C-alpha cells in the first residue's frame, strides 16, 4: 500500500502594507507636531520663553512645507517615472495665481484707490474685470481652478509631448522653455495678472483677516496636513500595480511596451497629477508669504525643485521632503549669517552632495544604518 502524503498546509503570508507600523507611528507623530505642538508653542507659550516658536519660524516652515509638496511631486515623475521636468515652477505659480486672484477680490474697496477693483487695474484705467476673473470672487470656484488650470495645461502639454515620444534632455529643455514663455506672458500688464508686481497686499480670506496669528497658524496646520496627506497618498500610489508600472517605465520603457502596457497613458497621468500637486502647493504658499509674481515661474524655480529632490534622494519620497527642508533651511541661514557670500556656500553644498552623496541624504542614512535601513 502506498503511503498517502498529507497535503501541504496553506500558509497565509502576511501582506506587507505600503507603510510599516513604525512608519505609521511617524506619520501620527508628524500630525501631532503640526496640529498640536507647533500651535501651542507659537500661540500659548509667551514670547519671552525659550520654548516659544516665533511667527517668523512658523512662516518659514510653512513656506518650506509648500516647497516639500513640490519636491514630492517631482519625485513621482523623476524618481519613480524617470521624467525630469525643469518647468514645475509654472504649475506652482499657476496655483498661486488662482489663489491670489481670490485674495485680491477679498480686498474689496480697502485698497489704495478705494475702488472695488484691484489697485493695479485702477492704475491701468481698466473699467471692468477681464473674462478670466469672472469667478474670482468665489472661493470654491477658485479652489477648483487651482486644480484644473495646472492640471489641464499639464495634460495638454504632456499629451503632445509623450505621444511624440519626446524624452530625456529634450523633454527637460521643452518644459523649461514653456515656463520661460509663461513668465514673459505674465510680466505683461494687459494679461490682467498684475504684471511685474503680481499680487500682494492681501487682507482677508473667507472674510477673515489674513494677518492675525490665528489665521497664520490655521494656514500652517492646513499646509502641514496637506504635506502629510500627499506623502501617504504618494507612498500608497507607488506600491500599487500602477506605481510598479511607473518604475518599470523608468527602468525599461521599451520592455513595458512589449508586455502590452501603454507608457503614454501612465506618463501622462502621473505628469498631470504631479502638476496638480504643485498647484495645491502654490495655493497654500501665497496667503502665507503674501505675494505672488512672475518670478515664481522663472526657470531657476524648476531647477531648484530638481535640486531638492536630488539632495534628499530621489525615488524615496521622504528624501525630497528632507531635501526641501535641508536646502531651504541652509539657504535661510546662509543669507542671514553670510549675506555677501552665501551663494558660494550654497554652491559648495550642491557640489559636495553631487560628488559624495549620489543617492542623497536618505541614501547616506541608509548606508550608515546598513541592511536594516534599506527599507524605509
Query: Which class do the helix and strand fractions yield?
Result: mainly alpha
Low-confidence stretches: 1-14
The number of distinct helices, counting runs of at least 4 residues, comes to 13
The total strand number stands at 4
Total domains: 2
How much β-strand is present in the residues?
Answer: under 5%
Main beta sheet: strand number and arrangement? 2 strands, antiparallel
Helix share bin: 55-70%
- Give helix and strand order, one letter per element, not per position: HHHHHHEEEHHHEHHHH
Taken from the alpha-carbon principal axes, the silhouette is globular
Radius of gyration: 23 Å
Q: Report how far apart the termini are.
A: 54 Å
The largest sheet has its strands arranged as: 1-4
Average residue-wise pLDDT: 90
Structural topology:
Blueprint: H1 21-44, H2 55-79, H3 88-107, H4 119-123, H5 139-163, H6 168-186, E1 199-200, E2 204-205, E3 208-209, H7 213-238, H8 241-258, H9 263-289, E4 291-292, H10 299-312, H11 318-337, H12 342-356, H13 360-369
Antiparallel strand pairs: 1-4, 2-3
Word description of this protein:
The chain is mainly alpha-helical. The chain is built from 13 helices and four strands. It has two domains: 227 residues, no CATH class; 78 residues, no CATH class. Strand 2 and strand 3 form a beta hairpin. The chain is globular, with a radius of gyration of 23 Å.
Amino acid at each position: 500500500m502506498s503511503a498517502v502524503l498529507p497535503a501541504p498546509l496553506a500558509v497565509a503570508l502576511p501582506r506587507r502594507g505600503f507603510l510599516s507600523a513604525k512608519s505609521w507611528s511617524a506619520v501620527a507623530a508628524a500630525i501631532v507636531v503640526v496640529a498640536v505642538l507647533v500651535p501651542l508653542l507659537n500661540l500659548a507659550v509667551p514670547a519671552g520663553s525659550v520654548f516659544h516658536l516665533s511667527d517668523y519660524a512658523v512662516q518659514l516652515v510653512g513656506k518650506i512645507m509648500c516647497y516639500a509638496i513640490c519636491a514630492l511631486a517631482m519625485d513621482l515623475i523623476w524618481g519613480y517615472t524617470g521624467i525630469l521636468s525643469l518647468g514645475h515652477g509654472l504649475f506652482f505659480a499657476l496655483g498661486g495665481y488662482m489663489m491670489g486672484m481670490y485674495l485680491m477680490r477679498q480686498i474689496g474697496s480697502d485698497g489704495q484707490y478705494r475702488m472695488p477693483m484691484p489697485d493695479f487695474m485702477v492704475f491701468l484705467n481698466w473699467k471692468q474685470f477681464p473674462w478670466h476673473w469672472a469667478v474670482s470672487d468665489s472661493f470654491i470656484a477658485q479652489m477648483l481652478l487651482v486644480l484644473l488650470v495646472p492640471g489641464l495645461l499639464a495634460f495638454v502639454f504632456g499629451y503632445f509631448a509623450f505621444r511624440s515620444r519626446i524624452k530625456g534632455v529634450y523633454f527637460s529643455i521643452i518644459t523649461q522653455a514653456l515656463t520661460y514663455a509663461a513668465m514673459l506672458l505674465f510680466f505683461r500688464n494687459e494679461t490682467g495678472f498684475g504684471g511685474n508686481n503680481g499680487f500682494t497686499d492681501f487682507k482677508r480670506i473667507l472674510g477673515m483677516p489674513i494677518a492675525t496669528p490665528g489665521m497664520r497658524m490655521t494656514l500652517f496646520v492646513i499646509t502641514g496636513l496637506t504635506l502629510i496627506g500627499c506623502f501617504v497618498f504618494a507612498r500608497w500610489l507607488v506600491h500599487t500595480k500602477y506605481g510598479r508600472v511607473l518604475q518599470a517605465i523608468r527602468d525599461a520603457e521599451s520592455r513595458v511596451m512589449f508586455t502590452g502596457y501603454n507608457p503614454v497613458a501612465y506618463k501622462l497621468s502621473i505628469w498631470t497629477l504631479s502638476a496638480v500637486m504643485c498647484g495645491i502647493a502654490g495655493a497654500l504658499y501665497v496667503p502665507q508669504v503674501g505675494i505672488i509674481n512672475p518670478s515664481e515661474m522663472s526657470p531657476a524655480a524648476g531647477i531648484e525643485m530638481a535640486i531638492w529632490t536630488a539632495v534628499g534622494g530621489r525615488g524615496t519620497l521622504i528624501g525630497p521632503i528632507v531635501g526641501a527642508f535641508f536646502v531651504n533651511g541652509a539657504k535661510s541661514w546662509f543669507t542671514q549669517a553670510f549675506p555677501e557670500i552665501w551663494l558660494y556656500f550654497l554652491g559648495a553644498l550642491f557640489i559636495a552632495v553631487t560628488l559624495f552623496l549620489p543617492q542623497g541624504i536618505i541614501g547616506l542614512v541608509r548606508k550608515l544604518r546598513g541592511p536594516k535601513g534599506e527599507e524605509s
